[in-house]
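thought: fold this chain, then report.
action: predict
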Amino acid sequence: MHASVAAVQFQPRKGEIEANLERIGEIFAQLAGEEPPDLIIFPEACTTGYFLEGAVHELARSAEEYVEELQRRWRAAAGSRRVDVVLGFYEHESGTVYNAALYATLGGERAQLRHVHRKLFLPTYGVFDEARFVSRGRRISSFATSAFPSAILICEDAWHSISATVAALKGAQLVLIPSASPGRGIAGPEIETVAHWRTLLQNTALEHGVYIVYAGLVGFEGGKGFTGTSMIVAPDGRCVASGPPFDECVVRATLDSDAIDVARAGLPFIGDLRSVLPDLLLDQELPLPHGGRVAP
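observation:
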């Protein structure tokens, strides 16, 4: 199986949802006029900007609202042709606000919302203070798509190795990472955070035998510059496509399911972990619930 993907480095206008949706519509038209991809992934918080603080509550919307908006714009650009889209946004659901990303299939008579991931790890260090303004998610899921079984991790989620492990154990072959990562540190030929992201994504793909598509926000908010540097990483750990820092662009590649099989045959880490996992989870020294309480 093959699937073409496009990671969009996107610069939102802070707090201007309609303007950002119009820009997304323009990108749809651009991609539909070329060779349309099977999957388009936009960055974290791309409909509003990332650093909203208290304004997040008035700007949050439901996933269903965004799917309707995306469907209308994709139909205007490409008619009934189908495409899958990942969109990072602030979600309002039953009175609670999350940093979320949706996965939807657009085109045809009706769009289909396939999955919503809510960010679990909310950073509260350095320039970040997410946990003050949004609630955290509770689950990492693998879900069916038009191409590969997939999972979504949002930015900081990916820095905790257990996140990708859970996704792969649940069957994900493609890990999608919308991100808003400010650039920090200049210790060599590239920005330090970019180098860290590249190493992290390559090691994660190699360990789990998965494709990774990382889409990074660009632009400046409050003097902080988002790096972009979107990447597509193969299951053998090779970075097969990447974008430049700070500029808008579209990063494209074609994914091949055979590459997953080859990588997992050569390094069967996930198979080994499935065998060992029951023993790990029975370890009484781990801080896991045991009979309704946390083991001492």
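thought: worth noting. The chain has a mean pLDDT of 94.
final: tokens above.
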